[in-house]
């Protein structure tokens, strides 16, 4: 099975697709740009969702659900917003099919008075709803999140990273003051950072986007950026300070303590199934997926090895005793007791699927009160005593989690450069890739020129002030270095 | 707040809408037929989803996610299926908007080659996918479930009970043999029965639908039916034995152990946010929602009562000690310490929201080491000693769960009639409503006549054989009584 995966070195792009396939995470569907998320991919997304959802709830948010369809007129109410999304909208225009010879056709008589847009994001429908929820300062803040599917018509898609339909969460909050909304925006950015680093073991840098990379309708877009193994950046999450833009567009005001009617302040923030792409390209290798234990749907798999029915019974009993012990400790474990596949096949399958630890037990292990323990990330294999095994495994899972993060962080450091001249910049971007810190004069023109010359974009402006300097392109003053990279 | 709810006696329909509003479960959205599920409604759905999901996983199912859009040509592949859904399809025909003076319009140049249907159900896209997953008997069974939104264009909608878009789960399984698929269909019907009765405290009757009420594309549709407080039936869940219909339509075959290529057997089964409507109309009253403790997002709310800051501190400390103790025991509890609302307002709000138990604590309770404990379902209020309170509350929650079920079951029995003549049938349906058992000759003509005469439909044919008799309409032989009711 492992041979089916193209090596990273040979073709990183193909390697990625091979891993997605061999780990049975997802596949293309007949609807161009849409994907089927297979059970392994969905179990992973469910674990990510559960961890994030708990963090959202711990910070006072509740879930709600808003309609899939947005009236066309809503989208146009916020000028920048509609400009940003108009070109990628799936539009519902009819409500019926009718039978014709040999099939069905759209019934022209079912044409809608107003077309409906399949939500590309939900600011408009949500702010239209909030108008009814908000009268007084007592109704604020509103801290709501939604787990949903959204559709953005994309021509060039890539499983998880860019698909026409994807799953995500979108938080939409309403506040009485600018300060509160800004604090919320930053708080959720921190939540994303914590999730990325502590659960995904994927180091990220926090920052703010330039005007040209801002979310359509936002005043500021904050982001976390991660660096993939091939030296390209991935925007892993965004948190938008929306100012009063949507409150203005949808006329959402509240009566403040002072009796005055004021426009409400807004934020929105989201991460999506795209994170699964980031996870793959942070840890995986030529044998397939590598998963951090905190998110792995199965953390430990036990493969029993036997040649006779008698051996089978004894070995399975041994395996079950290990299973019971670890299950009791809260470890996500399974025994792969399929009879129609041999151990070699199972090993390759579990390797491709990224299960962090594999325990193999055969008749000899039983005799010696041992097991063979294999680590997916480092490929170490050891004979371990059955005695105290569960506690060692618990510790090992925590160690793997930490080591994956450390390794990813070291790789990122190795692939991060600081440059002062544009020549150097172009050379580094072309030859080495990775993150490149450089001075920029703050203009959209220079940003655009760099992008055209090198395909590198400004991933973020750091949140903390840095050392002043001169723009590498124009020589004009620069307040601090900003982070460049080619990106997904 | 409670006055805002119309009494059940006065207008059951309006009462239902008032409860949904006052419990803050959901509201209509500007897109006709779509609803916004508010945080209280979503928290309830999440609890239902979690319990069901665990039951699905315990019976060997995994979750996956399939595309929202289905190519029009897929729908037409199974003749009955397309006939059933053609008249309620949201159709996507374009992929872009373009700016025009004063707004945006659909860009005619973005017209799709093939229209896409927003899934009304996913059999077709899933069976198209299964063709790629199934080659050999080793690949079977496939036991997959999906949590998703679906759209069926409905003209007459009602929050939760019938909405254009709704949330649901749809299980889709593939099997090597007819027997196995039939067993799966029945197993999932049992899962639904268990969920309805043990979690929702809503008694249901299991049975099979008549041909005219069958799911479009199914060989048999099994169902659970519940009886609402107003004497109308609610179909609460369905489990379909699909035979080989979808395997034929999508050419899904497997090589069996005997080397032969055979068509795969299928089932599908689903429940939706409609269950929330059923929950409301099973237990709630003129004060608002009544929730069974197993599903209540908040099981116990503590309302602190005080007149001074000094009292406030002491009372809150007392409240927190109760909170900590119950939280530790796994009870879903919260302290309502909002300063901007008075206790009376809070009581009415918690009552409307259906929180099973309310604890009020004031300075005098503190002195006497007491609390005031109020039960939502029976409206009993008692002074209870702080000593051993947590254990009594745990037991009380379990008792409430049981009593709600018993009460609902007794109500159903009172509203169930057995009739032998059509005159009696018409009188009972008209005057009393409820479930009516009667003999039927098994023909679609008689079924249709009864429906036209009385608006009552056959809810189900029972799974066990009953006593033979004669059709109440035609006098022809009948194998057993079947269950009639007017329904939602």
From TrEMBL, chains A, B:
One Gene Ontology CC term in the entry: cytoplasm
SMART domains noted in UniProt: ProRS-C_1
Keyword entries, A-Z: Aminoacyl-tRNA synthetase, ATP-binding, Cytoplasm, Ligase, Nucleotide-binding, Protein biosynthesis
Chief localization: cytoplasm
Keyword ATP-binding: yes
Gene3D superfamilies documented for this protein: Anticodon-binding domain, Bira Bifunctional Protein, Domain 2, C-terminal domain of ProRS
Assembly description: Homodimer.
Record's function text: Catalyzes the attachment of proline to tRNA(Pro) in a two-step reaction: proline is first activated by ATP to form Pro-AMP and then transferred to the acceptor end of tRNA(Pro).
Protein name, per record: Proline--tRNA ligase
Species annotation: Gracilimonas sediminicola
């Amino acid at each position: 099975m492992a041979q089916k995966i193209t090596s990273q070195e040979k073709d990183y792009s193909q390697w990625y697709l091979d891993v997605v396939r061999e780990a049975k995470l997802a596949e293309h569907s007949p609807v161009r740009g849409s994907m089927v998320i297979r059970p392994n991919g969905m179990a992973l997304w469910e674990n990510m969702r559960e961890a994030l959802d708990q963090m959202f709830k711990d910070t006072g948010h509740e879930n709600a659900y808003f309609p899939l369809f947005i009236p066309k007129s809503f989208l146009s109410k916020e000028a920048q917003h509609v400009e940003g999304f108009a070109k990628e909208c799936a539009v519902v225009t009819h409500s019926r099919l009718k039978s014709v010879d040999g099939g069905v056709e759209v019934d022209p008589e079912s044409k809608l008075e107003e077309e409906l847009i399949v939500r590309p994001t939900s600011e408009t429908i949500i702010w239209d709803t909030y108008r009814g929820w908000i009268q007084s300062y007592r109704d604020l803040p509103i801290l709501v999140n939604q787990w949903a599917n959204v559709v953005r018509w994309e021509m060039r898609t890539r499983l998880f990273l860019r698909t026409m339909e994807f799953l995500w969460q979108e938080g939409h909050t309403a506040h009485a003051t600018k300060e509160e909304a800004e604090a919320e925006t930053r708080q959720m950015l921190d939540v994303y950072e914590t999730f990325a680093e502590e659960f995904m073991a994927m180091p990220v840098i926090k920052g703010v986007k330039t005007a040209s990379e801002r979310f359509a309708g936002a005043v500021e877009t904050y982001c976390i950026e991660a660096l993939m193994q091939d030296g390209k950046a991935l925007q892993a999450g965004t948190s938008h300070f929306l100012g009063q833009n949507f409150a203005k567009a949808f006329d959402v005001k509240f009566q403040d303590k002072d009796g005055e009617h004021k426009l409400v302040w807004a934020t929105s923030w989201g991460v999506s199934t795209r994170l699964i792409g980031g996870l793959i390209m942070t840890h995986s290798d030529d044998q397939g997926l590598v998963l951090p234990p905190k998110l792995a749907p199965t953390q430990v798999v036990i493969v029993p090895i036997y040649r006779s029915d008698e051996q089978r019974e004894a070995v399975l009993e041994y395996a079950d005793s290990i299973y019971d012990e670890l299950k009791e400790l809260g470890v996500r474990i399974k025994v792969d007791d399929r009879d129609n596949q041999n151990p070699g096949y199972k090993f390759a399958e579990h390797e491709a699927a990224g299960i962090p630890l594999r325990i193999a037990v055969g008749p000899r292990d039983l005799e010696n009160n041992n097991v063979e323990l294999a680590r997916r990330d480092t490929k170490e294999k050891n004979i371990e005593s059955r005695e105290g095994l569960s506690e060692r495994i618990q510790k090992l899972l925590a160690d793997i989690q930490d080591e994956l993060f450390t390794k990813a962080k070291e790789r990122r450091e190795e692939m991060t450069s600081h440059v002062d001249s544009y020549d150097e910049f172009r050379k580094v971007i072309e030859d080495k890739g990775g993150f490149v810190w450089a001075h920029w004069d703050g203009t959209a023109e220079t940003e655009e020129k760099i992008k055209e010359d090198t395909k590198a974009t400004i991933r973020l402006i750091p949140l903390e002030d840095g050392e002043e300097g001169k723009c590498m392109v124009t020589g004009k003053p620069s307040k601090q270095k900003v982070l460049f990279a080619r990106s997904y």
